[in-house]
Amino acid sequence: MSDHLTVVDHPLVQHKLTLMRETSTSTAVFRQLLREISQFLAYEVTRNLPMETKRIETPMEAMDAPTLAGRKLALISILRAGNGLLDGMLELIPSARVGFVGLYRDEETLKPVQYYFKVPDALDERMVIAVDPMLATGNSSVAAIDLLKQAGATNIRFLCLLAAPEGIARMKEAHPDVPIVTASVDSHLNENGYIVPGLGDAGDRMFGTK
Ligand code: URA
Fold first, then answer.
1. Catalytic residue among 25, 71, 80, 105
2. Which residues have C-beta within 8 Å of that of residue 144, sequence separation ≥ 6?
3. What distance in angstroms lies between residue 58's CA and the mean position of ligand 1's atoms?
4. pLDDT tens profile 89-125
5. How far apart (Å, rounded) are the C-alpha atoms in residues 189 and 205?
6. 3 is known as an active-site residue
7. Any catalytic annotation for residue 105?
8. I need a labelling partner for 52 at 20 to 30 A (CA). Which of 22, 99, 114, 126 fits?
9. Residues 148-164: pLDDT tens digits?
10. CA atoms in the 13 A half-sphere facing the CB of 5
11. Helices (DSSP H) in 78-124: which residue ranges?
């Protein structure tokens, strides 16, 4: 654990993650568990949101009560698997703005290429949380964060379910200013860039594709 990396080791998160990893877990249950874990991760990643006070009346007396300050935060889903984290997070932070980044890998250059980019305005004034369940090689995460920075974001966090040491190192090198929140750091990547032990292809498992 460091300033750059927070592993949410809460027992409920770890229990739910174990259920998600199991091959026998159905698509419906996988999706539900991801939604539930996303809320614990959202709790952690928003821990330092700026606060202010406002004057309110309770039935007993007036008080200066804490409330969120500043512009609404922006959740950015890295397509397509990032979408599995969005709904749960939006339940906790209903007024968040939402953006999407779509990248595919060029099979010749092996570099990520942007095919979709739609984000909220005034990114420079918001906390921006980029979400993708799997931080594997880090190539698409680094590219997505490059794009968010080009669009003006300066206060960015990255939220994922599982991370590989290789992806964490790549992110730390490219974007040392972007803290990562995850539920687990797994062992390594295999030769196909999958996280081991991992849970397989997160997109396929949440959407029931192959
Ligand atoms: N993306 C996935 O869905 N799973 C992995 O293990 C790595 C990248």
1. 105
2. 76, 78, 101, 103, 130, 132
3. 49
4. 999 999 999 999 999 877 777 788 999 999 999 999 9
5. 18
6. no
7. yes
8. 99
9. 999 999 999 999 999 99
10. 21
11. 83-92
